[in-house]
């Protein structure tokens, strides 16, 4: 028995496997309100060396150099997923409690990779313990296979990563509350 396949169906399947095609840049943006002040979110994002402790797919994270204020200016990550593992270094620009941006300087994997986190107080909110984050990820792989894989999974991975930072924030707030509670108990 034969099934008739229209030409358009074949082309759409073939285009996915056309690995000779050039990679295309991809951009993902997320804005979200989190329960924490900008200073705390800035601290979590700028401490790149801790990413290995809470960010999925990050197997190692390290700081190579710091600026005059002590913020990281060069850092790196080793990321992995299934059998794919890559390591790359980035140049960072940190503006305390306002912004953390990173740009890949090791370009074996990417033609370019840029991330930007912007932290703002929530306008009109009486709760000073809230922060609006604007996260932007912009990249282009050199390898078209990675490009195709990333196109399918990047939106979900971006959400997972933002969730990891949010979870880290909640953990820090719990730790702060426990510390305050223990201090009060010790004084009694």
Automatic annotation (TrEMBL):
GO cellular component, one term: mitochondrion
Domain Coenzyme Q-binding protein COQ10 START: residue ranges: 36-165
GO molecular function list: ubiquinone binding
Highest taxon listed in the record's lineage: Eukaryota
SUPFAM superfamilies: Bet v1-like
One GO term of the biological process aspect: cellular respiration
InterPro entries attached to this UniProt entry: COQ10-like (IPR044996), COQ10_START (IPR005031), START-like_dom_sf (IPR023393)
Subunit structure: Interacts with coenzyme Q.
Entry function: Required for the function of coenzyme Q in the respiratory chain. May serve as a chaperone or may be involved in the transport of Q6 from its site of synthesis to the catalytic sites of the respiratory complexes.
Family in the record: Belongs to the COQ10 family.
Name of protein: Coenzyme Q-binding protein COQ10 START domain-containing protein
